[in-house]
Amino acid sequence: METTDQNKSEEQQNIDNELKKSKTSEADTAKSHGEILKQQIIEGQETYDKNPISILLSSLTAGLEIGFSYLLICVMFYFLSGKVAEDTIIKSLSLVYPLGFIMIILGQSILFTEQTSLLTLPVLNKKRSLPSLLKLWGLVIAGNLLGGYLIAFLLVWLGPRLEIFDLKTVEKIAIHVTQYNNIVILASSILAGWLMGLLSWLVAASKDTLSRIVIIFMITAVLAFTGLHHSIVGNVEVFAGLITSSAISFLDYISFIALALLGNALGGFVFVALLKYRAFVYDVKG
């Protein structure tokens, strides 16, 4: 038993030493796997070290800012209704969907799905504990959801008064998001979490703001075009439907948000954080 613990300790020391060797690449050179992983672990640890109130406020800000994606979705849906086929409208929403994500990520607010793999890496690297991860996830999710509730109330009140969309549009979008069975929503959310974890990894790999904008647009547009379920955007979409339409029940909302959060977390953790970290570990082992 003592030998096993010693071997694990030596293995962890080798991993840490290899990460320390990773230096920042020159401006015209692509970052290595180790460099990206080191940056992600450092950024993740910095989030753990923040004041809980700061984390909650940053998460609340992200929940509010994602509302700008929802605002444009509603406006575009309403503007194109009756002019083009509804399935064409749904696909075209991918052109405006990325805006909120660009604002959040470049503005460095804390979004659950973008931070899922980032916050998991320090746990995998044995620098943070699982309970601390779950506590941090809870804070981030609470802030994101609360921000989403606030912006949903504001937009469903303001939209009809500005005549930029109506409540029927809100209902159609909410029904479109929730019309699938639970297994489909969960599987869809896992893929969305995978893409968002990959987004975090690719943003860390990029070296300038324009590259980051392109990456964010590309990944989140894929989410929208394919209809994959994102828990934080979906929170605004479904909650707005809940407070304005009898077609969306409280059970519909709770079922959706639980499955979407679970799926997004699994996707970000398993397919990005775990696999990329283990790939590095096996490379260190030789």
TrEMBL record:
<dbReference type="GO" id="GO:0015499">
    <property type="term" value="F:formate transmembrane transporter activity"/>
</dbReference>
<keyword id="KW-0812">Transmembrane</keyword>
<feature type="transmembrane region" description="Helical">
    <location>
        <begin position="99"/>
        <end position="124"/>
    </location>
</feature>
<dbReference type="GO" id="GO:0005886">
    <property type="term" value="C:plasma membrane"/>
</dbReference>
<keyword id="KW-0472">Membrane</keyword>
<dbReference type="InterPro" id="IPR023271">
    <property type="entry name" value="Aquaporin-like"/>
</dbReference>
<feature type="transmembrane region" description="Helical">
    <location>
        <begin position="213"/>
        <end position="233"/>
    </location>
</feature>
<dbReference type="InterPro" id="IPR000292">
    <property type="entry name" value="For/NO2_transpt"/>
</dbReference>
<feature type="transmembrane region" description="Helical">
    <location>
        <begin position="55"/>
        <end position="79"/>
    </location>
</feature>
<feature type="transmembrane region" description="Helical">
    <location>
        <begin position="179"/>
        <end position="201"/>
    </location>
</feature>
<feature type="transmembrane region" description="Helical">
    <location>
        <begin position="136"/>
        <end position="159"/>
    </location>
</feature>
<feature type="transmembrane region" description="Helical">
    <location>
        <begin position="253"/>
        <end position="275"/>
    </location>
</feature>
<keyword id="KW-1133">Transmembrane helix</keyword>
<protein>
    <submittedName>
        <fullName>Formate/nitrite transporter family protein</fullName>
    </submittedName>
</protein>
<feature type="region of interest" description="Disordered">
    <location>
        <begin position="1"/>
        <end position="32"/>
    </location>
</feature>
<dbReference type="Pfam" id="PF01226">
    <property type="entry name" value="Form_Nir_trans"/>
</dbReference>
